[in-house]
Amino acid sequence: MKFRAKIIDVGCLNHFTRVVNTISKLTKTCILRLTPHNLYFVLSGKVASGGVGMWCELSQANFFDEYQLEGVAPDTNEICLEVTPENLSRALRTSQNAKCVKIKLTKKHCPCLTLAADLPTLSSISRVVTHDIPVDVIPRRLWHDFKEPSMPDFDVSIYLPPLKTMKNVVDRMKNLSNFLVMEANLNGEMNLKIETDLVSVTTHFKDLGNPPWGDDGSQGRSQSRDPEVMAHTRVDIRKLQQFLMGQQVNPSKAMCNIVHKRIIHLILLHEDVSLQYFIPAVA
Amino acid sequence: MDCVVTGGNVKVLAKAIHSLSRIGDELYLEPQENGLALRSVNSSRSAYACFLFSPLFFSRYTIPCGHAFRCKMAIKCVQAVFRSLSSLEKTVEKCHIELDGEKSRLTFTLHCKHGLLKTHNLSFQDSESLQAVFDKESCANMLRAQPRLLVDTVLHFPPSLEEVSVSVSGERVWFRNHVDDEAEQSKAMLTELCLSSDEFDHFAVGAQTSITFCLKELRGLLVFAESTGLPVSVYFDEPGRPLVLSVTDSVLEVNFVLATLSDDSNLRNHNNNNTKQARSPPPPDDFMNDDIDSYLIAMETSELAGPSDAPAPRSPSPNHTLTTQPSVAIHRRRLESGEEEEEEEETEDTERPPNKKFRSLFFGSVCPSDSQLTNQTIKSQEVLASDSDDDTQASLP
Fold it and tell me: Between residues B361 and A178, which one has the greater pLDDT?
């Protein structure tokens, strides 16, 4: 099992760092899946993570100048590791001006992802900073938990309002209630609602637009749906807040699929990174 | 005592105080003939800092004649005087420090623009002299670097990191985070930065060695050094012996003395006998005891001498080497059996707890220097009461 990769472009390094920063704000630990073409940061949506699921996909060619992978077995060219993204974020943070950053899978006192950055110096010999990040190798028998989640059979799909605006609203609502209801319809309208004994607050968004999903089953279902009818789901407000807090870069596309009373599926698409986040409904 | 600091030096003084606040909770102030000494020490006595401002630093420098004056104050109070560094720079023209002996107060008056006067009356407590004993020149290893280099180095370590290990060889130096806890070791992230000797202004390494010390205090010094742009000199020996960080210029001498971890079996493996043989034998006056590894920072204290008493303990020499002094004799006698009593101490005996050796987390007991003690082994020395002056037990850094 071998993994070696190298980043030499400053822009790629910055971009990769931002992605890792976002992941580190979303979860304390997650699974890193390495395949020949992609990297995935995965949270499996089990009880341990509060039912929250995450799937972040990066195309390795957009970040790494060199990328060599030898998977766990000849027929399975893939490696699956459990990492603490905060460590990775910390290691990358101070290496932003590095001439080159190498990431390797190594065995020190335990399996580690070793990040080595060549820092610029005035002397002829470069300054090297090495970070050994302990990881856990996930055995193959557990890999089925970390497969790409299938698109849920949603009731409504809608583009999200600007994330910053949403974050401001949700931040204030969090002071009033632990639960939030997100509802949307096929007319491009979305509401964020909280309700307590003393007060109810609703924020209305209009003209958001609904993504055209094309010829799949869900589209068929939503075509027959009354565009005015709202699909809604009640979620733990902190989970939504955590998702919004982590976003550092404005995505090219941001949308949300709502399965009535079941789940909120948030999708953010950047140029070379896609992030999906699932928040389950609470009673 | 009457001192005036003008212009840009006010900011330097302020930075020194902020830097000292990273060490301990109390500021020890002692106007000496060779300058004003501001000192601090941490509660576990494993870190000590001294800023010595020469008389030339001041536009006026008058010290109390007659008996030596020494005091200590809560450092937060002094910090409050110099709170906002940026506004200090812009508005304060001079700072006047005056002693009001009658009321036991030190008055700090900031003369600001537009005729504004800010007066702070800070009360102080009489204190013993605080002075670490160390000898920079006898250290086997010395590095000197621009503060920027060290700042860039510590940047790679998280602010929460307690201890850092520094290893040197002939050509290189490595900085690593030190992981103490056994349980942590398998899960902790390890960071290592390697610098080559040509990044340093001066790089003299006696033998390969590796020491571990607290990063917080290094950061405290760097905050000061970076603002002055003066190079930082690092003097150290083998693990267990103190590390000295120095910043000097014509009007100022700063020394931070930090304890290093000893009893680390990993580090012991580094230090083979060659290291010890390579070093020249210590001078006879030095604290010696055969057990070099347990020697670490020794803190000298002496009673605050009244007007009729014996002269105040030594005027500090730049090297701070220990010489036999009446005050040291006091220690020793008390330690042994209390049979011989210093008459001068009699009245104070009942009120004050006995002088103690300082135990710190990092190292064993300290041996006062005296030729009579060379035969005494560490084991026979008792541990006395912990520092009674630290009534407000500050939490460890």
Answer: A178
